[in-house]
Specification:
Largest sheet: 7 strands, parallel
CATH architecture of the largest domain: 3-Layer(aba) Sandwich
Radius of gyration: 23 Å
Helix content: 25-40%
Number of domains: 3
CATH topology of the largest domain: Rossmann fold
CATH class of the largest domain: Alpha Beta
Structural class: alpha/beta
Number of strands: 18
Strand order of the largest sheet: 3-4-2-5-6-1-7
CATH superfamily of the largest domain: P-loop containing nucleotide triphosphate hydrolases
Shape: globular
Amino acid sequence: MHQPIVEETLLKLGISSLNTMQQQVLEASASQKNILLLSPTGSGKTLGFLLPALLRLKPDVKDIQLVIISPTRELALQIQNVFKNMKTGYKISCCYGGHDITAEENSLAETPTVLVGTPGRITDHINRKNIDLKNTASLVLDEFDKCLEMGFQDDMYFIIQHLKSLKNRILVSATEAVKIPDFVAMQGAYVVNFISNKNNLLEIKYYRTPSDDKLEALYQLCKYIGHEQAIVFCNQREAVDEVSQYLSSKKVFAKAFHGGMEQHYRESALTRFRNKSTSILVTTDLGARGLDIPSVKYVIHFQLPPKEDAFVHRNGRTARMKSNGTAILLLSKNDYFPDFLSNRPQELLLDIPDTAIFIPEWETIYIGGGKKDKINKVDIVGFLIQKGKLQKHELGLIEIKDECSYVAISRTKVKSVLDSVKNEKIKNKKVKIAIAREAPLQ
């Protein structure tokens, strides 16, 4: 019955077929009201729950039909982006802390079919009476274990109490042992479990620093990995800032990412990493899950996490999609292996070439216009080729946000492009065009 809708949606997304996990969720949703989806980071969970949710939407209903709760703003935006790319014809609104609440209220003035957001901000809109959820039939709790870990249980309880007509739920988690509170009402839910404790494509190694200077040791690791990208994990925001600033001082193309940064700086950091104009992303465990960033060759634990599940989620950023990957534990002379490691990792012996640090091919430029200005990728490509005098191969990844755009261009062409376009307009509008802004020093 729904096969044509599924095939049409996959065609719009440029996907030839569903993976096994996505197919199982879709099949289960035909007969099951409540589904518990257990699957690791990078396995395609977003499409896995959006397709069944789409099939339950009714074009003649004008209320919010589907609520999707996400622990982070980045994940909420990612879900919104995937849903928009599905081109369903249904309106989706995204709400999250740090975003202009007036802009969200304007979006909610015309009731969306789908609401995605973080627990605190959805709770805020309920209290402000900006949304009415009494007729909402479907709920998705994405990265549910992360929502609990971040202390959103009270907000989730509050939201679910307002879902008076709830008929089906999909709860998504990357952790098998998560304890589900009774208020979620998932007793007897159908379980789709794709979590495996073994990943034969992941190597875990350790590097013991020859001195107490872990920052210098990390710099040597950056030289060792060369042109590959890596995610460096720290336990605190302050450590992220310190590490990223140190690496930048050593001419390493590194960017910080953590919850204390303003949203536009967080978006810029992720965009730079996605389009490979940054080699190293330094982050807290916020970067371990729920972000639209590609699999990387290396994960480096600058600081070891206190719990095994955080270690597993960090490592989930590598060795994905049938690719090999390496997790490196960076240990000082006095650091011990964590108790949750059952086997001693292999020691990494560095043979570091005496060369300069790798310089990425790309740089990211910022354009002060986006979807709200009716600017699309075709407009930007044409503009940069005609006015910026670029060749197609000198253009990399283009990301269009609501109010701005980010474009990767050949690093050697940045100055000439900015000089060429400084007085030009896109779609008859004068917009700011510059190298994407750096986050200020903390």
